[in-house]
Amino acid sequence: MKGCRALTDSFCNNWSHVRNMIVLRRQTRINNLQPMTSDSAHVLWRTLTTAPPIPSPEPEEKAPLRAIDLAKKIRQEKREEERTTKGIKPTATPLQKRVSELKQFTQQLQNVHPNVLAKHLHKTMLFQNRDVIVLNKPYGVSVKDHGGGTCITAVLPILAKMMDLKVDSELQPCLGLEKEVTGTLLLARNQEAVDNIVYLHRHNQIQRKYWAVTVGVPVPSEGVIDIPLIEREIAGTQHHFKMGLSPMFRLNETGEGVSRIRAHRQAESAVTKYRVLDSRAGCSLVELEPLTGLKHQIRVHLACALGCPILGDHKYSSWTKLAPQKLPENVLGKLGLEKSKTRNLTLHLHARQMVLPGTTSQPEIRVSCPMPKYFTKALQRLNLIFPDEKEPN
Question: Is the model more confident about 249 or about 331?
Answer without folding.
Answer: 331
